[in-house]
Amino acid sequence: MFGPIEKYLLEKINNETSIHMTLVDPEKITAKQASKIAESASQSGTAAIMIGGSTFVSQDHLDDVVKSIKQTVEIPIILFPNNITGISQNADAIWFMSLLNSVDPYFLMGAQILGAPLVKKLDLEPISLGYIIVGDGGTAGIVGKALPIPYSKPELAVAHALAGQYLGMHFIYLEGGSGARIPVPPNIIRTVKSVLDIPLIVGGGIRNKEQAIAAVSAGADIIVTGNIIESSDANQKMSEIVKGIRNK
Ligand code: 1GP
After folding, report:
1. Among the four 14, 83, 96, 99, which has the fewest Cβ within 10 Å?
2. Is 141 in the pocket of ligand 1 (CB under 6 A)?
3. Which CATH superfamily is domain 4-246 in?
4. Does the global pTM surpass 0.70?
5. Residues 6+ apart with CB under 8 A from 167
C-alpha cells in the first residue's frame, strides 16, 4: 500500500540513486519567510519540503506555514511531527513515525494512536517511518526521551533499524540531531544500510557538499538538511549539495 507521495519518493530514489529534502522548522520563522525558503529550496532541486521542529508552535502558525509553502511550491510537503501537535491540514503527507529508541511508550506508540484518526480525517498520506536518534541526540533526543545510540556502537543502530524494518516500516531515519557538530559518520550509515532492504534517510549537521556526498556514498538514500537554509549563502549551498549528490 503505497500512496502517491511515497511512490514519488521511491521513483526519485530509483532514478537518481539519492535525493535531498529540506526541513523547515516552523518555530523559527514566519509563514512568509517559510514560503521564500521553500521556493529557493525548490529551485535548488530539493525533492520535498519537510515541516517540523522539536518543540511546540501554535496550531494556527503551523497551519499558516504549511499553507503558505503549499501556495508557493509544487514539490510535496511532508509533515515531520514531534508530537500530535505537528499534524496540519494542507500538507500532502506525514511521516507516520515511531521513535524506536525512546524509553517513553508515548513516543513509541502513544502519540501515533492519538494522531491516527486526525491523519485519516485530514486525508494526509501516512508514510511509515522508524526514527532512530544517534550521536549526542540533540533537542530531539531530549524531547523524545531517547537513549541515543553512540557512534561507537554501530551494531545497536543496526539492531534498531532491522527491528523497524521487520515491524513493517517503509523507511528508516538516522537522526544525528539538528545542528549536530558532526553529521552521522559514514561508517554508521554504511553498516546500517548494508542490512536494510528499505530506504535509509540521514539528517542532522549536514552543512556542505562534502558531508552530503559522504553520507550518500555511504548509502543514504535521502539526506535531509535544515539549518543551512538560514545561512547567508543558503541558495548556493543547497544547489551545491543537490548537484553534488547527483553527480557523485
Ligand atoms: C533533520 O535534523 C535534521 O533530521 C536537520 O538537521 O538542521 O542540522 O540540518 P540540520
Report:
1. 14
2. no
3. FMN-linked oxidoreductases (3.20.20.390)
4. yes
5. 130
